[in-house]
Amino acid sequence: MNGDRFRDLCRGKNLQSMTEDYINFCREPSGTAKSSARFPNLAGFCRQFGLRHDDLLRLKKERPDLYDHLLFVLEDEALNFSVSSTLTAAYLKHRLGYGDREETVSVANGGEMRLIFEHDIEKDGL
């Protein structure tokens, strides 16, 4: 994405307008027999406006407020779209980052650790 287009994307009103245009596009009949609308998603949004993953990462870094707004709008649309709950859950988890929780790791340096078993492995078996 060139610098001018990215600057335009970073303007709140422009991103809001782009998001609404994309949602309206998804609500239009798609011409397929399976569905009369498209599942609104982040990849589709990027495709619609010629954005790359790097553009989203840059938006997230430079304008986290707008990036969060985009995710919230797409989350709302995904939750209200009539598809299987499995697809919705997978989308929310993987594409919108709801499954990426950092686990807290506790480290303790207490010296040597010994494992003690309450049975005789040779006598009791595995």
Order of helices and strands: HHHHHHH
Mean pLDDT: 76
Number of strands: 0
Q: Could you estimate the helical fraction of the residues in percent?
A: 55-70%
Mind summarizing the main beta sheet? none
Task: Describe the secondary-structure layout.
Elements: H1 3-9, H2 12-27, H3 42-49, H4 53-62, H5 64-80, H6 85-95, H7 121-124
Helix pairs in contact: 2-5, 4-5
What does this molecule look like?
- The protein is an all-alpha fold and 126 residues long.
- The protein is elongated.
- It starts with a helix and ends with a helix.
Question: What key attributes describe this structure?
Answer:
mainly alpha; 7 helices; 126 residues; elongated
Brief sketch in words of this structure:
The chain is mostly helical and 126 residues long.
